[in-house]
Amino acid sequence: MIRASILGATGYAGIELVRLLYVHPEVKLVHLVSQSFADQPISSVYPNFKGIFEKTCSRLDIDQIAEESDIIFASLPHGASDKVIPLLYEKGKKIIDLSGDFRYKSVEIYEKWYGSSHARPDLLKVSAYGLPELNRQEIIKTRLIGNPGCYPTSALLALAPLVADDAIQPDTIIIDSKSGTTGAGREPSSALHFSEVDENIKAYKIATHRHTSEIEQQLGIIARHDVTVSFTPHLLPVKRGILSTIYANLKKHLSFRDVFDIYSNYYSSEPFIVLHEEGSLPEIKHVNGSNMCHIGFVVDKRTNRIIIVSAIDNLIKGAGGQAVQNMNILFGLDETTGLKNPGWYL
Amino acid sequence: MIRASILGATGYAGIELVRLLYVHPEVKLVHLVSQSFADQPISSVYPNFKGIFEKTCSRLDIDQIAEESDIIFASLPHGASDKVIPLLYEKGKKIIDLSGDFRYKSVEIYEKWYGSSHARPDLLKVSAYGLPELNRQEIIKTRLIGNPGCYPTSALLALAPLVADDAIQPDTIIIDSKSGTTGAGREPSSALHFSEVDENIKAYKIATHRHTSEIEQQLGIIARHDVTVSFTPHLLPVKRGILSTIYANLKKHLSFRDVFDIYSNYYSSEPFIVLHEEGSLPEIKHVNGSNMCHIGFVVDKRTNRIIIVSAIDNLIKGAGGQAVQNMNILFGLDETTGLKNPGWYL
Amino acid sequence: MIRASILGATGYAGIELVRLLYVHPEVKLVHLVSQSFADQPISSVYPNFKGIFEKTCSRLDIDQIAEESDIIFASLPHGASDKVIPLLYEKGKKIIDLSGDFRYKSVEIYEKWYGSSHARPDLLKVSAYGLPELNRQEIIKTRLIGNPGCYPTSALLALAPLVADDAIQPDTIIIDSKSGTTGAGREPSSALHFSEVDENIKAYKIATHRHTSEIEQQLGIIARHDVTVSFTPHLLPVKRGILSTIYANLKKHLSFRDVFDIYSNYYSSEPFIVLHEEGSLPEIKHVNGSNMCHIGFVVDKRTNRIIIVSAIDNLIKGAGGQAVQNMNILFGLDETTGLKNPGWYL
Amino acid sequence: MIRASILGATGYAGIELVRLLYVHPEVKLVHLVSQSFADQPISSVYPNFKGIFEKTCSRLDIDQIAEESDIIFASLPHGASDKVIPLLYEKGKKIIDLSGDFRYKSVEIYEKWYGSSHARPDLLKVSAYGLPELNRQEIIKTRLIGNPGCYPTSALLALAPLVADDAIQPDTIIIDSKSGTTGAGREPSSALHFSEVDENIKAYKIATHRHTSEIEQQLGIIARHDVTVSFTPHLLPVKRGILSTIYANLKKHLSFRDVFDIYSNYYSSEPFIVLHEEGSLPEIKHVNGSNMCHIGFVVDKRTNRIIIVSAIDNLIKGAGGQAVQNMNILFGLDETTGLKNPGWYL
User: Per-residue pLDDT tens for C248-281?
Assistant: First the structure.
């Protein structure tokens, strides 16, 4: 059994990891670290675990965690990860970090978009961007994974095959994403107050959201030149799920079938990618509860544009599920281990 | 024109008062007092007022407010009202207080249920409980109104006719109420965080909610003896509206028509009471956006019990609308002035 | 492996069974019968199964189903079950019926509340009411299970210990239940139209809902005398979950701890019952996604009443999960097989 | 008083017209025509009118309606309007049609996008497109108004100033719109079933929605050349409101202030247009309940693109409110008569 610990276990991404790892057949949860709820059973914070899993949360003890864990998942605020993770990394542990701190190749881009300096830029050389469908070979070779952001996962999986195929004009890419509220975390605020979010939708951080830089970095790697995109996140009155509607100009006339072939070749053996046939489009209902990414598209002959729709569960493929998928890779397990459940639709 | 000022104008009850008084044909809004947003236009806090009403919020200045206002609405936290209101009252102003501080006849009951001592119990002798359908004659005679709580409004309007008629056994009264989140106000908290409220329902403060005592006081006045009830509030994943489902044993066999007659006699000329005919029941959709209270019921012969359902908009008949109705009474206007709009249903 | 087939697989209860049985380690799904979607893959009706489970739905063929299945789950409309199930029963199959047709001991009560005659009242002698926590010994002995209604499950699990202990006055029992919309099924109607349900709550079928009779039958068996209750269902603007708030007068003064002991003794080794400690109450968030029933309560000394709150997922413990639990019993498996997942909370 | 009748009064757009016209100071509602609910009081169909406005619905009687009405609002299905409206038009009545039948200049475009032939293309020469902010002079001169679609209203008000100023490249316009469910009407269907819409978002009719042609027609008139756009509608789990996020490439570098000036000049005296200052963006909460259109934008220097966000209430500025605004113009009233209420935010 793989001994796993979670730092930040009582945040929303953290508790989703607990939920997923609890049912993983090869994992034993060793430490649930939570500064806010230390010494309390996880089931008193999240009563869905009552009678099922009632482990007590603990304070952060680097030495003990390192000694008793084979892998550590860190779901800490941006800027905390880059202090704690180096200590664990230096003890030889495998680490999957859900913050933005180890997702970047370039410390300059990180520091520009995150507005703070990075404590350990040297580790960016050993860390891998943890989007297995795009970067599996790099993930296998390291033991420090920067688990992707939720929005970038939804955008990159939709765009990578077309960028790799040089089928679209990169400077026309527009990503209009709509997310559930769990992506914004557990901390109460006016912007996340029920009476403010209910029956509403709003755009936020237009042209300035940090995830823009993460999307651009990965598309640039695939395109082998700089890519600049427009990215607009929106907050939906739902808990879970991201739907991204993505626009780009085609470089030449392509039929639906041509484009479908590009996708199906690129993702020929990917267990977590589902392509929708012509006339069908992804919805967040299709993926909530699973690690799947659904992708559908329309080729608009009138405008010679492709409109792609992708859907993921922000807490699973956009956070905890992808982290488990990365763990499976690091330990040589089948990538779907513990992640085979269908979503819940209802 | 009646010059009106609002203390606590940027809370949810406060802003509903602004919305209602803005369209009231006999009222001019003079001061919108908000400690949190002083010197900011109300339309920057609530952008639905942009281009419509952009008055700047001000700090509390008792002298100025008293001088420039004919009536003051106070929507302050419990415990603040009883400090500020006496100052305004002593300047001869008409006052409608939306807190619990002036709803009680007995200071002992107030202090027991609110857990704090009352600064000016002497004023409880001059204040009137502002539920016009039950207490209009007392309201007319005073100029300090304790505007009722939202839950008590929904429960008392449903129960008063039957208690007055001695048709039900008072010790069997059970009030199961379901409320939207605006009743809990504007302050963010875990319990009101979107991701926690969405797709959920919960009961809270069972048998201990303060509004229990307010319901019991008024039913006791009608019954002319002490009445003890069970009251359970629930939090719904909606913004507005209270639905109360109320149970009581009938003292004797009564048909639907018998009971309907009791209600229609009691509320014979009330503009804000709507009785549902047999087979029809109130829903919060029926009242959201209006000052109406809808009442429907079922006589269950099997159990000799009556089940009453009442619906109000917690921010209107349960707060701001009722306050406007009280103002209309205090100034000798038709009670429906400014309150004639139908709700919005959709 | 147990070979299982589902009749009515594309209804909401049916598809929940598919979801649960797909991950059950001892079950192979053989036939998904759907008249509406015959010859279509289940994943085109419910795209959450795309890339996971794409079995084609079939038409009803009694002989083939009987030959190739060890157990049949029927999720058919009331009144269809009592035609189809006898044919399968006579072929010696194990059957779990999710309709109301085989839940009753008395055909008279069934016919009175369901308003139609029963095609095979003789089978009511061999069928068992499938609420394992109350009726496990009877379930084990038969092979025709009337799987309980969702509301009765939530009410009976909350009330059984107190009725068995003779701690409450049965004629004071009032059950105020609030349900998500999936309980009303997949068929579109005005009453379930999004624009009508959203931001609303309503009571319906007060004092006349069929589940009243099911609750009364089981409480009567426990009490060993007739029991009559008030039951009010409400429709919530959420998909899943039932919260029941239940009121009853205590026969004598009992402390919280006294009552807690009654519950914990009654449910001493039940894997799907969770009791909340004093000060904590169940919410539908706690159980959605799991087969758990959470129970909490308040003893109100002022009224000498107990107020009990129970929460279940209407599609799991209230339908498909309970059916799987019954199947586990019929095949001698551990009762929690395939049902160990925690709910999802978020 | 203006005598007004509504055809299709019990649909969602129809009932919103009833709500708005009921409070309009210059209007008397004469006939509420509803084939489905003829002879029933409107308040039994929409109980929010109980005790307020209980007029009985009637069947369609062209002669009587023409004789007793000064203006007729038609909220009929597409394809019914072009049969009924000519009859009323020929009797000299003023008519505001909420269907798509009289919005087009070119019958070819109408027939191509609506997939059916137009019964009276000759009337397209006398009808005016009823978007007052863009087309007031044409509206004044006619008495047959094609009231705009909800999506086109949100898109055109956001785009017209920039197209008129030649500030953007028309062939780069992308309109990503998100709508509440009332836009899809009152007719139940699987796609609008609560359990399907709740906690979901989906795109639909990508590149083929009829409103695309309406947007293109009006932008083409402003640009004086053909304009082709991408338009993607999405269905939100809310009742009301449309948020459109619109992308276009700027023709030259413009600052936020430059663009703001373009908008404020174009809309210098428009009572229903609100421009958001830098750093602020519209949300549907800001407009639900009012006839306002809020517009905000971000100039993205990195991509030299403008991202515009507009918000309207689909039932008011997107349907009934705009119809009232058109009526006010036709009768020489102040355009804001009956439309001064702020939205409700909560």
Answer: 999 999 999 999 999 999 999 999 999 999 999 9
Model confidence pLDDT, tens digit, residues C286-311: 999 999 999 999 999 999 999 999 99
Q: How many alpha carbons fall within 13 Å on the CB side of residue D224?
A: 3
Please report which helix (H) or strand (E) contains residue C2, including its range. strand C2-7
Q: Do D195 and C182 touch (CB under 8 A)?
A: yes
Residues shown for chain D: 346
pLDDT of residue A51: 97
pTM exceeds cut of 0.90: yes
Whole-number average pLDDT of chain C: 97
Say if the Cβ atoms of B194 and A197 lie within 8 Å.
Answer: yes
Q: What are the contacts of D107-116 at 24+ separation with CB within 8 A?
A: D109/D213, D109/D217, D110/D213, D112/D213, D113/D210, D113/D212, D113/D213, D114/D78, D114/D79, D114/D210, D116/D79
Name residue A296's beta-bridge partners.
A309
| Top-level class of domain B2-147+319-330 | alpha beta
Q: Do A188 and B186 touch (CB under 8 A)?
A: no
Contact between residue D248 and residue D169 where contact means Cβ atoms under 8 Å apart: yes
Chain C positions in Cβ-Cβ contact with residue B306 (cut-off 8 Å): none
The tokens for C69 are 């299945």
CATH code for the part of the protein at B151-312: 3.30.360.10
Rounded alpha-carbon distances, angstroms, from residue C3 to C27, C30, C66, C155, C329: 6, 6, 10, 32, 15
Token pair listed for C281: 């109450």
Quote the distance between the C-alpha of residue C110 and its chain's center. 17
- Cβ distance C286 to A16 less than 8 Å, yes or no, reads no
Domain parsing of chain C, residue ranges: 2-147+319-330, 151-312
Å from A186 to nearest chain B CA?
Answer: 8
- Could you tell me if D198 and C194 are in contact, meaning their C-beta atoms sit under 8 angstroms apart? yes
Q: List the single residue in B with minimal CA-CA distance to D183.
A: B346
> What is the distance between the alpha carbons of residues A229 and C341, in angstroms, rounded to a whole number?
40
Q: Which residue among D180, D189, D194 places its CB closest to the CB of C181?
A: D194
Residue D150 is among the residues annotated as catalytic for this protein: yes
Following DSSP, what letter does each residue of D150-215 receive, concatenated? HHHHHHHHHHHHHHHTT-B-GGG-EEEEEE-GGGG-S---GGGBHHHHTT--EE-STTT-THHHHH
Q: Choose the closest CB to C193 out of D180, D192, D237.
A: D192
Give CA–CA dist C44/B18, Å, rounded.
Answer: 51
Q: Which two tokens stand for residue B4?
A: 């009106």
Shortest Cα–Cα distance, C345 to chain A (Å): 6
Which residues, other chains included, contact D67 with Cβ-Cβ below 8 Å and sequence gap of 6+? none
Q: Is the ipTM of this complex over 0.95?
A: yes
Cα distance between residue A8 and residue B39, in whole Å: 40
- Tell me which residue in A178, A202, A283 faces D283 most closely, judged by beta carbons: A202
Number of Cα atoms under 13 Å in the Cβ half of residue A305: 23
Given a cut of 70, the residues of chain B with pLDDT beneath it are none
Nearest to A207 among D207, D307, D346 (CB): D307
Q: Which residues contact C90 (CB under 8 A, 6 or more apart)?
A: none
Locate tokens 């009303």: which residue? C184
C-alpha B114/C-alpha D312 separation (Å) is: 43
Per-residue pLDDT at B106? 96
The nearest alpha carbon in chain C to A199 belongs to C199
Residues of A annotated as catalytic are 150
Is 90 exceeded by the pLDDT of residue A83?
no
Local structure of residue C124 (DSSP, 8 states): G
Q: What is the pLDDT of residues A122-180, one digit of tens each?
A: 999 999 999 999 999 999 999 999 999 999 999 999 999 999 999 999 999 999 999 99
From C7, C13, C96, C150, the catalytic residue = C150
Chains that touch A (3 or more CB pairs under 8 A): B, C, D
Residue B19 sits at the chain D interface (C-beta within 8 Å):
yes
